[in-house]
Amino acid sequence: MNRKKFQKGDFIVNSEEVSSSAYIVEAGEVRVEYADGNVEPVNFRPGEMFGELGLIKDLDYKITATALENSVLLVVSQQDIEDKTATCDPLVNLFLKIFMERSRLPFAQLGDGPAHRPIATYLGIDSHDQIKQSQNHLLELYQAKGELQLAIERNEFILHYQPVISLRGGHTSGFEALVRWQHPTRGLLSPFHFIEIAEQTDMIIPLGNWVFEEASRQLAIFNRHLKTIDQQPAFMCINISAVQFADPFVLQNFTDLMNRNENDPAQIHLEITESVLMEDGDRTVQILNGVKELGVELVLDDFGTGYSSLSYLHRFPIDTLKIDRSFTSGLLRDKDSMEIVRAISGLAKNLNIKVVAEGIEQLEELSIYRDMGSDYGQGFLMSRPLPAEEIIPLLGKRISW
Length: 401
Ligand code: C2E
Ligand code: CA
Ligand code: CA
Known about the structure:
Number of strands: 18
Strand content: 15-25%
Bound molecules: ligand C2E, calcium ion
């Protein structure tokens, strides 16, 4: 959108051109004459809008607008509307497109405008089936959003905690919080069934906040327990989705969450994936630095699976790398995994970054990581993710394998 000034008598739009913007009068007065001679000219004053039909794509809309006084106008282009609707709720986006298309049809049918195209072409798809599919998909998303919202309100999400074991001492140093949905009819659902849809509907933001608060509350309970048995406090790893990071209020949100959290901030480890780092680099550096200033640690999860760029490790304030499970399962099968893991471990050591090995299921895998000097290990060999009440009796005990 941009603001333009016109002198008294200036042409703002000339009927020779097809108009493709709407205009809001901020100051002055504008007279609009319509190419369709059946409509009387109209004068527009501050606060009024004209030319909005010009926002409808491919509509051969022509007007003449003249400044009757020195005037200031806010010009809204088709591109402005597209940019804004691209980020709005998908259902609102679709309705807007359909209403715009419906407004175009009667005009196109009137005069000598081009024969009207089906709505599908306007939506960038070319068959009736596809349009139905696209609408059904949106309606499904909408429904899913409602269900997730309700599930949060009804407290249907629960967390399981997987111990993170020190490969030096063999004791539990921390936990990873992993969310599950106790669905009223479908039973206990793994994140595989709902995280992606929570991301697509932005429900990952309230869900992520709930996970953060619940995991922090539980960590405080674990740590009080550990204190009574003279053990070091543990840390809690919390998975943060790239969608949570893309939110404009992300830093304020983490600041509020950390202010309400009763643990030592260094005991909160936020797990992010490479997709977070691939977004707008400068903004990401700024946000990650802001989050680090809150005192938390940052863990780069699933390392090695994405577009792993070693430059990330320099550029972003990462404390720990989690070597992806796929490398662990490859260790005993192929030489490549072993070499990659060795290279990652060496690099991390040089950069003073800790290493967590994920998905350890066999003793041999554990030994390899221990020999390589990895700091922590996590996997079914040591423990599956467990509900909090099953973790409490394990606190302070060495998990044997
Ligand atoms: P992740 O962050 O990579 O979490 C590790 C996953 O590996 C967990 O699956 C865990 O149960 C599983 N796992 C741990 N040890 C082993 C092992 O030895 N062998 C095998 N085969 N698997 C192992 P889970 O709980 O199903 O979580 C899947 C993914 O869902 C997580 O992958 C994470 O990306 C996402 N997720 C889970 N909780 C949250 C959450 O609170 N927020 C967000 N944004 N994502 C979450
Ligand atoms: Ca994780
Ligand atoms: Ca992982």
